[in-house]
Amino acid sequence: MTADETLDCLGMICPRPLFETLKRLRKMEIGKTIEVVGDYVPSIDEITEMMRKQGHGVVSVTTEGRVWRIVIRKMR
After folding, report:
1. Contact 44/17 with Cβ under 8 angstroms?
2. For residue 33, which of 20, 41, 56, 61 sits 20 to 30 Å off, Cα-Cα?
3. Does 1 have pLDDT greater than 90?
4. What is the pLDDT of residues 28-44, one digit of tens each?
5. Can you tell me the distance from the alpha carbon of 22 to that of 26, in angstroms, rounded to the nearest whole number?
6. By C-alpha distance, which of 17, 15, 10, 22 is closest to 51?
7. In the chain, which residue ranges form alpha helices assigned H by DSSP?
8. 0.85 surpassed by pTM
9. Does the active-site annotation cover 9?
10. What domains, with CATH codes, occur in the chain?
11. Active-site pick, 4, 6, 12, 14
């Protein structure tokens, strides 16, 4: 799946990847998708948990080595 936007969080540690994701989502239209890319492993659970709590769709979570990608659909 190709996301509508990509957010590069490589080199960032918690809580910055989450804050950057939330900031970008606020600017997006409902139904659009964003791929968040990072390398700080604890952010995977932090971001996916917050997205579900806020009612956004977590489309996929993939990892390749230490680099992870989370695709999120803005639902509200």
Report:
1. no
2. 41
3. no
4. 999 999 999 999 999 99
5. 6
6. 22
7. 16-27, 42-53
8. yes
9. no
10. 5-73 (3.30.110.40)
11. 14
